[in-house]
Amino acid sequence: MNRSLMAIGFFILLSGVALACTSGQTPAEQRASTLAATKPEASAKPAWEQDWERTLKGARDEGRLVIYTGYGSDFRQAFGDAMKTKYGVTLEAVAGRTEEVMVRLAREQQNRVHNGDVATLSINYLPILKRDNLLQPMEQLLVLPEVVDAKGWYREQIVWLDPDEKTTATFREAVNPPWVINTDLVKAGDLKSWNDLLAPSWKAKILMNDPTLTGGGQSLIIWLGYSIMDWDFVRALLKQEPNVQRDNRLMVEWVARGRYPILLGPRKEEPFQFMQAGAPIKFMVPKEGTYLAVGDGAVAQLRTSPHPNAAKVFINFLLGREGQTIMARTSGYESSRVDIPTDYLDPATVRQPGVKYVSQLDAGFREQELELRKEAVKIFEAYLRK
Fold it and tell me: Which of 76, 167, 351, 368 makes the best surface tag, with the fewest CB within 10 Å?
């Protein structure tokens, strides 16, 4: 019996060797192949990656995206090229001053015309869209790891204008230099303080962005009255008879050509472009300091978005490193991301370590902002009536 079992075992062993030889594998190789065949398949992709792939497919199928924005042509062109090249989405923009864009958006909504997907507008107007229930919560739309990583942001988080519902994410908190000067007309040491503007030599030589409208001029006057100086200084400044204008590009051109030596409350984008072209102008921050501005540095998705996948792709791209680099390079504003190069920016426009800034996002300021705006508008409407 034992000899029979031994014979059977020996036969099985020989069969195994023969089988291995005929398959071209040694017994060890065959065991390895068997183990490999029994291993489970590679683990599935992370949930965010699966979500992103579905979104990209949906965006390509939609093929189109409409944004409402206050940003200029360089921003729109660069993002349009990127969206088309990377994602196969054609970007269309409704652009202009925030007030103008808001009027069109409101008219479309009243007429139940839902063309738009995303808004990158002033933080003073986006809350109006939220109040009218035109925005949708966005936190669940942010899926790229570099976007949701808190360490990538200046305040170690994405700052939401409405932390409870999270319909509006900010991406810009930049040093706002309050002056643009012509370096041929304003010499070193001529202007160091806000009080220097009150000298008789500057009377009727100051250009100012209109503070009765939302924008750099209004923000500047609010901060002068609230924190940097006081309302008495604002009234004294009006005695210098500043020329109040609304066309951002025209004002910068006047300073670049020497028609005016000083512009107060500029938007950064146009001076940045003129400086890149070699115009004799530069930003300047008086010794009393300045503030961090968000301005148009916020994004929201409209609740009635007809291209939701394309909107989701745009929002994630905008808030990521590449998108924020485009934003900063085309507008001259420093991003709220801390991993974006700033070597191409004027040093006067870059946050400095250890410096305490007042900001549009500070809670104390936000609580008083509406009343401060009313005061600024009242003072300048009276001035312009004269």
Answer: 368
215-237 per-position pLDDT tens digit: 889 989 999 999 899 999 999 99
Segments making up each domain of the chain, as ranges: 47-172+295-351, 175-292+369-385
Q: Which residues of 46-69 are buried (b: 16+ CB within 10 A; e: fewer)?
A: eeeeebbeebbeebeebeebbbbb
Q: 140, 88 in Cβ contact below 8 A?
A: no
Number of residues that this document lists for the chain: 386
187, 197 Cβ separation under 8 angstroms: no
175-292+369-385 is a CATH 3.40.190.10 domain: yes
Distance CA 299, CA 155 (A): 17
Maximal C-alpha separation, the chain: 124
Residue the block writes with tokens 């974006």: 340
Q: What is the strand order of the sheet 206-209 is part of?
A: 243-245, 206-209, 262-264, 179-182, 281-284
The answer to whether 209 and 267 have CB atoms below 8 angstroms apart is: yes
Residues 214, 124 contacting (CB under 8 angstroms): yes
Helix (H, G, I), strand (E, B) or coil at 164: coil
Averaged pLDDT of the chain: 87
Do 47-172+295-351 and 175-292+369-385 have matching folds? yes
Sequence-separated (6 or more) residues with CB below 8 Å from residue 102 = 121, 125, 128
* CATH class, 47-172+295-351 region: alpha beta
DSSP assignment string, 321-380 = HHHHHHHHHHH-PPBSBSSS--TTS-GGGS--TT---EETT-HHHHHHHHHHHHHHHHHH
Q: Take residue 49 and report the two structure tokens written for it.
A: 């990656």
Q: Give, as one character, the DSSP assignment of residue 226.
A: I
Pairing mode, if any, of strands 262-264 and 281-284? unpaired
pLDDT digits (tens, 9 = 90+) for 280-296: 999 998 988 888 988 88
Reported as a pLDDT band with limits 50, 70 and 90, residue 25 is low
Structure tokens at 199: 């000298």
pTM summary value: 0.73
Phi, psi angles (nearest 5°) of residue 135: -115, 150
Task: Report the distance separating Cα 385 and Cα 69, nearest Å.
Answer: 31
Beta bridge pairs of residue 288 = none
